[in-house]
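Worked example 2:
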Amino acid sequence: MKRVLILGAGTAGTMAANKLRSQLDDSWDITIVDQDDTHYYQPGFLFIPFGTYEPGDVVRTSSEFLPKGVTYLNAPITELKPKDNTVVLGNGDQLEYDYLIIATGTSPTPSETPGLESDEYGKTVHDFYTFDGAVALRDALAKFEGGRLIVNLIEMPIKCPVAPLEFAFLAEAHFTERGIRDNVEIVYVTSLDGAFTKPVAAKHLGSMFEERGILLEPDFYLERVDTENNKLVSYDEREIEYDLLVSVPLNFGASFVAGAGIGDELNHVNVDHGNFLSKDYDNIFAIGDAANLPTSKAGSVAHFAMEVFVPNFVRYVQGLPMTEVFDGHSNCYIETGHDKALLIDFNYETQPLPGKYPLPGVGPFSLLKETEMNHWGKLLFKWMYWNMLLPGHDIPVPGHMTMAGKDRSEA
C-alpha cells in the first residue's frame, strides 16, 4: 500500500483529495489531516461586515466534501520530519507517508506587528480575514456613526490581495447607503506604492479612489500600532490617527514548515513554481496558499493549479516526467460597491488587461471594467465553490490563461 498524506482540508487540500482519489487506484491510501472540522468559504468573510452574507452562509463541515476512500483525521499538526517521512500530530500520533502534499494555507498573524494584538482587537481594531473578525467588524460598523476609518494593508503577500481594496469600496458604499458618508473619512494605508500597482490596471482604475473620496497613503511601512492613542506609526515616524482601524495583518504559513526547514521567511513552502514540487525533498509538494508562488494567494489559483498538479502527480508517482507547467493563472472579482464589480485575469508573465472573459467579444464578464454582471459573478461563485470546486468537478474555464478576448495592444 502506497501512502499519500495531505495536510490541510481547505480549498486546495480538499480539491486534491477528491481529484486524486478518482485518479489513483485502490493500492493507494489517501489520508487528509486538518485541525478544524469547520470549512469556511473565506471569500464570504468580506461580505459579512456589510450584511450581504450571514455568518451561517460561509460555514460547512470539512468532512462532508471528502469522497469515500479518503481517511479524514481531525487533529493539529505539530511537527514535520521530512527526513523520516513522518508527520507528528498534536495527540502524539505519528503518520508515515510516501508522498506528502502540504495544503495548510496561510493565516493572518497580528502578533507579528507590535501593538496590533491588544485589548483593542475587536473594539477599535478589527480584521475581516477571519470568521470571528468579520462578525465582530459587522457589529462595529453597525454602531459606527462617523470619524476616520483606516484600512491598513501592512505587507504582501496576503490571502486574496484585492480584498483590502474591496473593503474600502464596500465601506464607501455602505456609509453612502446609510446616509452618513459625509461623516466618515476613509483612508487606505498601504506599504505598496499605490492602490493599483500594475501599470495597465493603474491606467484604467487609478481614479477610482479619487472619485469615491477615499484618501490614499502609499509607501507606509507599519512599525507599530499605538492603540492607547489610536495611531499607526511607520518606520519613518509618520503617524496616522484612526477612530476605527481595519487591519490586514501579516500572513504566515504553518509553523511546522519552519521547523522542517522547507519554507521561506513567512513559512511558505519553497517549491518549483511550475509543478509545486518542494525544492528540498523529492516526495513533498505544496499547493494553494501554502506554496511560495509569485502569484495571488486565492481560490482561483488553487483551482487552476489543480489542473496541472493532478496529472503531474499521477505521472510522477509512476516514475514518469511531469509534463504540465503552471503559468500562474489567477483571476479575481473586485467588488467596487453599489452592486458592481470588476474582473482581472492574469498570470506570471501577463498583467491584467481589458477585454471580455471567458468568451472573446461575448464575456459575459468584462475585464478592468465595473459592471453589475461582474458583481453577480462574484456572488454566484459561492454556489460554484460549494457544489463544483470543492467536490473536484470540472469547471469549463481553461486552467492556463488565454489571451483570447483581451486587448493585446495594452500588453
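The domain at 110-250 is CATH 3.50.50.60 (FAD/NAD(P)-binding domain). The longest helix spans residues 299-316.
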